[in-house]
Amino acid sequence: MTNPLRDPQDRRLPRIPEPCALVIFGVTGDLSRKKLIPAVYDLANRGLLPPGFVVLGFARRDWGDGDFEELARKSAQQHARTPWRDEVWSRLVGNIKFVGGSFDDDVAFDHLAETLDELRATHGIPGNAAFYLSIPPPAFPMVLKQLERTGMANNNVSGGWRRVVVEKPFGNDLESAKALNDLVDDVFTGHDVFRIDHYLGKETVQNILALRFANSLFEPVWNSHYVDSVQITMAEDVGIGSRAGFYDTAGAARDVLQNHLLQLLALTAMEEPTSFDSEEIRTEKLKVLRAITLPEDLESHAIRGQYVQGWVAGQRADGYHQEENVPQDSTTETYAAVQLNIKNRRWAGVPFHLRTGKRMPRRVTEIAVLFKKAPHLPFDAADVEMLGNNQLVIRVQPDEGLMLKFGSKVPGTAMELRDIAMDFQYGEAFTESSPEAYERLVLDVLIGDKTLFPDAAEVEASWRVIDPLEEFWAGTKPHTYRAGEWGPRAADEMLARTGRQWRRA
Ligand SMILES: NC(=O)C1=CN([C@@H]2O[C@H](COP(=O)(O)OP(=O)(O)OC[C@H]3O[C@@H](n4cnc5c(N)ncnc54)[C@H](OP(=O)(O)O)[C@@H]3O)[C@@H](O)[C@H]2O)C=CC1
Ligand SMILES: O=C1O[C@H](COP(=O)(O)O)[C@@H](O)[C@H](O)[C@H]1O
Predict the structure, then answer these.
(1) Angle, nearest 10°, between helix axes 262-269 and 456-473?
(2) ipTM value of the model?
(3) Does the structural domain 200-496 have CATH classification 3.30.70.270?
(4) What sequence ranges are listed for the domain Glucose-6-phosphate dehydrogenase NAD-binding (predicted)?
(5) What pTM was computed for the model?
(6) DSSP-derived pairing of the beta strands 162-166 and 129-133
(7) Range with the largest mean pLDDT of 4-13, 125-134, 271-280, 330-339
(8) Does residue 13 surpass a pLDDT of 70?
(9) Is the peptide bond prior to 398 cis by the omega test (within 30 degrees of 0)?
(10) Which of the following is catalytic: 79, 123, 225, 260?
């Protein structure tokens, strides 16, 4: 399996997929317009798509290819990361096709299968196709069954590879995730199933492994002897937008804690893999996910909140109950903070504090490793007071980079101490631009590289962490916080009880 990190020779070579088709279900939706179509354009712009590459959009519209081309052009112009180039677009536009229909429409799926077959002849695609399920999660089973019924999922029938990309959330608890895993592995072969967690496609997230395992500096102190605690924050300033239908049935824990935040935790806490082979990395992540335990006293260690009206960045912001299509009595959380423990020798006794929220003061995702204070400090008590914990902060977004915080002498005649920060910023250190997460992940799907995709066991291990939390919260009301605040007071108290506080992210 191709892996750019495994062989330095590989890394320098552009990875170009074999001729293939990308079929996007739900192509008119938010994700497709903002991320997937722009990702395809960016790949084309960077010369990373094979000759004869085709995008087939499927949605319930009475549309021809021209209407779809128009939607695709607008999405690429609005959301692509690379500059607009007419020549790139005119190459791509000849290879954009549309099939209209609903997911329960057999005729439409038969037509889709025929279209794929025809493309083999017209575009020289040897039966290779990836099916991207950018659709509401309840529709996953129906579309999978249609792919099975029509034979589109079958490698042998098509004579090329057939892959499926399943968006998150993968199930809404352990039981439903298992059922979906069974179904998807039944329709496709396990090897051809790509479960998306787009955080793994972010450059800074991939850098966690480089930081930890390409250096000798950090690993010796990366354990309970030196680390006091780890804080993982994913804060968003936005609300739920027009996604109430999905969000109100999910909430913050199912939406992002189960996937993005636990994956960040796994990469931060895992042991060194024996190689950068995708299986080896996933084995190590899985060991961590399975070693996670929840504190017994969930009342004090699992806090959820819901925003009420407030101000974000100087703008008045509605409360969750005022958002479009949210029921007035909704008790869905838009904020969650939990303490997790990891039962292994490296991390015993080190709390991992995870928090996420919508309508927080600003958008920031970071992993902060907070080190224990030195066992002895030969300075005046007043000076020592000025020092916090040493911190290593991996800034996932925005302002991607790393920050190391440590104590230093203030210039002058006295031994006065103060915390200072050493900053590394991607934008300053590298001239290369990072691909957007979905660009990287779509390319990996077309190449067949599964390194950045969680497997069934990881998904299930993550639900084993979330299910007891959901059970504990069921029937309770979330705490409230004002839009523009860093979550409810109870989340601050959770840390304050042990003399800690949330880092000002
Ligand atoms: N949007 C985001 O930021 C993120 C989304 N995701 C996941 O991606 C997936 C898609 O999300 P998103 O794009 O936001 O969802 P949207 O609701 O915006 O889009 C859903 C798409 O599915 C189509 N669709 C729905 N029902 C049917 C049906 N019965 N037959 C045919 N087409 C149908 C819709 O078509 P129509 O226009 O006709 O309704 C639309 O194209 C979800 O699994 C979501 O959880 C994951 C991370 C982030
Ligand atoms: O998966 C999701 O992620 C987005 C945030 O993604 P980011 O890359 O902008 O950090 C979040 O808004 C959404 O609720 C969730 O489904």
Answers:
(1) 120
(2) 0.98
(3) no
(4) 23-207
(5) 0.94
(6) parallel
(7) 330-339
(8) no
(9) yes
(10) 260
